[in-house]
């Protein structure tokens, strides 16, 4: 369980929000989205079972739960909460939207059903609406909106400090279409000393950035609109052969790994890699680049 407090205003009741999400990185993104919600206490649980135990200690004003979780799924959890704690507003997040799921959410009076990926501004607006509503209203789709807020200086992984982050002044280009994943990469890299991190939402935009100004490291997702991540890597290899590249993918297959190896990719990371893994790969790539540059000078 993780707990964080928003700053309370005097004489204003603190509202309690429970996030139920078994993916640590996704829970972190949701907490970021709630940082600007005033007068609230945010608690996180990693399962429906843990969430119900937390309710037994003290009720919540709002519960935000993912649908797909190990053990009890989000809808089953909401049904139990609506039965035992009817005053608690509920929100459901899902990447598996269907007419049947929306009908089920409507029947149990889910206040809001949001389809992933959801922009953090839209998420925050839905939370404020849920907190102000005296009675939960029928579930409905959230409009698709992408928004990447600035990254606050917090890190959900206490082990992150163990990574040596002392690197030369460097510029890192992140290429990621999904704003939540882009935010996570920014958060993972923010403790690297002397580093500037820039984001692009497509391979085409990344090439424009590279043409305008130099970068020391490229971190790209595979699944991108237009050209995919591997096509981008080959373009970069043609024009910037010395630039280290870190490849992030949720598709693990031998052919893709062979292509990445042929393109001399510095590291291939899983889409759900821990912050320390991302940071460590970036540090090693930047140091290897600096060492190769120093060797060229000596020669």
Question: How would you explain this protein's 3D organization?
Answer:
By secondary structure, the chain is an alpha/beta fold. It has 2 domains: 131 residues, 3-Layer(aba) Sandwich (Rossmann fold), CATH 3.40.50.2300; 141 residues, Response regulator (Rossmann fold, 3-Layer(aba) Sandwich), CATH 3.40.50.2300. Helices cover 39% and strands 19% of the residues. It is built from 10 helices and 11 strands. A 6-stranded mixed sheet has the order 1-3-2-4-5-6, with helices on both faces. Strands 8-7-9-10-11 form a 5-stranded parallel sheet, sandwiched between helices. Helix 4 links the parallel strand 5 and strand 6. The longest helix is centred in the C-terminal third of the chain and has 24 residues. The termini are far apart. The relative contact order is 0.10.
Topology summary:
Blueprint: E1 2-5, E2 15-20, H1 24-33, E3 40-45, H2 48-57, E4 62-66, H3 74-84, E5 89-94, H4 99-107, E6 112-115, H5 120-132, E7 170-175, H6 179-189, E8 195-200, H7 203-212, E9 217-221, H8 229-239, E10 245-249, H9 254-262, E11 267-270, H10 275-298
Parallel strand pairs: 2-3, 2-4, 4-5, 5-6, 7-8, 7-9, 9-10, 10-11
Antiparallel strand pairs: 1-3
Helix pairs in contact: 1-5, 2-3, 6-10, 7-8
